[in-house]
């Protein structure tokens, strides 16, 4: 009798332990799911970029990205798309590719948007093609993306890219704490001789050559050697 009671008690403890262990798994799994949904509830948009790193972008991977995004529009996971590149007047990616941002639709559930992100993350382009998927709270409008970056000023801000230079405007480079605008350095210039004097005291054949050298213009015409 005592043996039977002992067996029943041990069995109850064992069964209870399993129940508690199972309950713990349920709680942990539920917490993980809740946190996952919460993250996607806070981040209702995703930035996606794909392009080449010295060669042509992998067309199969790019087509998969387009297909996943198209499917997301069809099932209501997203309802807004900002295409930053390629587009008229926009930046051009190295060897093709594209850069865009997709926002979740108002009726899209966190689970549906999460599934969309998982589909994007399942794409793995081969070496030679870069691919980035980054969650964000909201997409930046195109007019904000293309807003010129300021440089110089009291803080002496630098342009973000070495392919850009700070253009202060003709005759403004010697003004203390002058603020300019970051502009792309041209890679091809004509050879007509229309000399300009750069803010660095160097004479350039024309304004394009000055910009290519990363120099803002002090004045039109050759520099005066007697001036510092």
TrEMBL record:
Under Pfam families, the record lists: Kazal_1 (PF00050)
| Protein name in the entry | Kazal-type serine protease inhibitor domain-containing protein
PROSITE patterns from the xrefs? KAZAL_2 (PS51465)
What residue stretches are annotated with the Kazal-like domain? 176-225
| Superkingdom in the source lineage | Bacteria
InterPro entries the UniProt entry points to: Kazal_dom (IPR002350), Kazal_dom_sf (IPR036058)
Question: From which source organism is this entry?
Answer: Nitrosomonas communis
């Amino acid at each position: 009798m005592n043996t039977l009671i002992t067996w029943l008690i041990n069995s109850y403890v064992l069964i209870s332990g399993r129940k508690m262990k199972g309950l713990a798994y349920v709680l942990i799994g539920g917490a993980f799911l809740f946190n996952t949904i919460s993250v996607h509830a806070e981040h209702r948009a995703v930035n996606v970029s794909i392009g080449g790193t010295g060669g042509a972008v992998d067309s199969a991977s790019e087509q998969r990205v387009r297909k996943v995004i198209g499917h997301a529009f069809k099932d209501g996971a997203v309802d807004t798309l900002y295409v930053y590149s390629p587009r008229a007047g926009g930046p051009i990616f190295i060897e093709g590719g594209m850069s865009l941002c997709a926002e979740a639709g108002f009726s899209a559930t966190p689970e549906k948007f999460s599934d969309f992100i998982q589909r994007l993350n399942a794409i793995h382009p081969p070496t030679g093609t870069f691919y980035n998927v980054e969650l964000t709270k909201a997409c930046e409008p195109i007019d904000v993306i293309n807003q010129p970056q300021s440089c110089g000023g009291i803080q002496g801000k630098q342009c973000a890219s070495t392919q850009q230079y700070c253009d202060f405007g003709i005759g403004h480079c010697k003004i203390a704490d002058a603020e300019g605008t970051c502009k792309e350095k041209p890679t091809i210039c004509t050879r007509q001789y229309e000399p300009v004097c750069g803010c660095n005291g160097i004479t350039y054949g024309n304004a394009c050559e000055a910009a290519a050298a990363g120099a803002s213009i002090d004045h039109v015409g050759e520099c005066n050697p007697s001036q510092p």
